[in-house]
Amino acid sequence: MPPSTDWRENIADDEETRFAGYARxxxxxxxxKSRKYGSGRALHRKQLAxxxxxxxxxxxxxxxARHGLFATPGSFPAWVRLSNGGADKLADARxxxxxxxxxxxxxxxxxxxGGTAATQDFLLINHAAFxxxxxxxxxxxxxxxxxxxxxxxxxxxxxxxxxxALRQIKKLAxxxxxxxxxxxxxxxxxAAPFACGPFAARARLxxxxxxxxxxxxxxxxxxxxQRVAGGSLQFDFQLQFFVDxxxxxxxxxxxxxxxxxxxxLTVGRLVVMQQDIDPAxxxxxxxxxxxxxxxxxxxxxxxxxxxxxxAAYFASQxxxx
Length: 321
What we know:
By secondary structure, the chain is of the alpha+beta class. The chain is built from six helices and nine strands, in the order αββββααβββαββαα.
């Protein structure tokens, strides 16, 4: 089906108030964890690797893709941050969501947060869709999980009842326990949509490498650094475009848009260059900002969960300054 510009967001009247509450709760949770680990993020606290890269925008893209960062072919410097998704710095072998974020330097234009943008951030996870449809479910679950297993169990039982809580625990175990072979060999997704000019799209980062190494699970960052010490790694950056609300919904991030009607289109290439570990650069990346709203207005995030994350990310950043 052809990409469509007939997408809509459904913005509730109480979002500003609710999102401000979410932001305060995340800031408080982050402060509690910072007393244990030092300054850091509320989620994705454990940085596994920081790397220099370049992002190449391909030429001969179709008209519906040539917006924002993808309007003109070119090559841009980039930073990559690999992370485990939790609020604690647990062993890599423990089940978790895995994060692959990168910041592209060079694009210029109106910013999603106002003013002028000089960078474009993409924050990706190893899941094609979210487990929860609404910001309220997602945020309250995340806050309960940050507080610890006992708090999480009480929250699930109170919200879903005993049998509902058991179902939610099973779903969560399947989510964080999803098999993962490593950052060099797994695809990563935006999971929720963002604008591409007048169109809407989701993103996928597709690795070129098929070299899976079982020992990587004990040190994800070490595995990635070992690989780039011997040569560059390449990933295709792909967009999947909205076609209609029934098949590719904007406000329900639990739906994995079917490729049969919305195929992925490769619009760029992320190349992580050959390099050695650089502790000073790693500290610079760790203190830097990676924000789904950090970039061009042409790529502003879409949907309730993405709007809620705007407030939460800002509070997190303020708590680390």
